[in-house]
Write a structure and sequence with these properties.
The protein is an all-beta fold and about 90 residues long. It has no helices and seven strands. The chain has one domain. A hairpin with a 2-residue loop joins strand 4 and strand 5. It binds zinc ion (2 copies). The site of one zinc ion has 7 residues, from loops.
Length: about 90
Amino acid sequence: MSAITEDRVHCPARGSADVDRRSRPDGRRTHDCHRCSRAFEPRRCPHCGGARIEGPIAVSGAPYETPPATVGCWDCGANIPALREPYGG
Ligand SMILES: [Zn+2]
Ligand SMILES: [Zn+2]
């Protein structure tokens, strides 16, 4: 089964799917990443709108020695600039 049943979001720092969605009092959605133990705002791919984007901190749980200049979109494969503040504002 590969049907997409919901809007999938990955942590924009590590690309982890181990995240929870929650609602904030102001109505905006936010997410908690269990791997990073902190909240983040999803980053959207400018090409496909997906929120499954690799992070500049680590891939597959292994930290990068040097942060990459670009990161890849899991949904459409585009390379987009890596964020210096991957958790959002
Ligand atoms: Zn994370
Ligand atoms: Zn994309």
